[in-house]
Amino acid sequence: EFAVVDALPEAVVVVFAAVTHLADPWLLFAMLAVGYWFASEGVAGSPRRAGATAIAAVTCAYAATALGKAWFAAPRPPGAMPPADVPT
């Protein structure tokens, strides 16, 4: 496993690291805020309803991610650093 990772170009490793952040709640809610802020009137004809629907969708996406992590419970690879935002 380490030989495969070491053989990858640095750019590929950086891209994979960035992709792993796509399911983080802070990114999901930031994308929600930006999307809601810049949405046209056609998208958000009823702002309250559109906002509530978007918040529900993002919350469900995070819940699905958290359930998947708990369900699979894959251990961290050997030598991996613990997550920075989780106290040990």
UniProtKB/TrEMBL annotation:
> Which ranges does the record mark as transmembrane?
12-38, 50-72
Q: What InterPro entries does UniProt report for this protein, alphabetically?
A: PAP2/HPO_sf (IPR036938)
Q: Does the keyword Transmembrane helix apply?
A: yes
Q: Identify the keywords attached in UniProt to this record, alphabetized.
A: Membrane, Transmembrane, Transmembrane helix
User: What name does UniProt use for this protein?
Assistant: Phosphoesterase
